[in-house]
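Appendix B. Chain record.
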Amino acid sequence: MTIRRDAQSTDGGTTLMSSARLDALREVANIGAGHAATALSTLTGTRIMISVPMVNVVPPGDFVPEIAPDVEIVAVQMTMSGDISGQTVFLLATPAGLRLAERMLRRKRGTSQSLGQLEQSALKEAGNILAGAYLTALSEFLRMALMLSPPSLATGDPANALRTLGDHAPRADSPILCVETEFFLEEPVESLHGFFLLVPDQSAFDAIFRAVRVD
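Structure tokens predicted for this chain:
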């Protein structure tokens, strides 16, 4: 289940992309969030709602808004292939990652003190579900075949955790799509803040908008 909020773009987003294109991406993100919320709720046995409060299109070097360079994060990364290619990344601050892992493992809040193997496996599955839901929505919307590799997980400060994106970091004419994602969980009630990044190869955005005929 999603909570719909008015999505906004940063100044970088509005200069890099028209409002019609942002609206198209926004709609895909909200559909994907709905699918992901349903899957996570079923898996965890608790109600989870996901909002997409903001969709940004930002240049490399500034694609992790609201996460300071010295904050430790966990990043679940997958390679995207098919009609368009690149990478997807689900990232959130480590404390939020621990809380989400506890839900995935059906543990009481505060029982996971570190990202052990079970917690990492749970977060990989959460990232896989989220990326799969977004990519399925995008695939159906575009009528394109899109596939994901098995997830890998990295931790540390943003620069180190995301260093494997170097080969895919696009130039200014091929921006990164950042979907701000907020999880609302019940029993007990809490909210977790994270981001989903679509890091496309240079031609991917052009292919997307040719497919939907959006200028």
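Further analysis of this model is presented in Appendix C.
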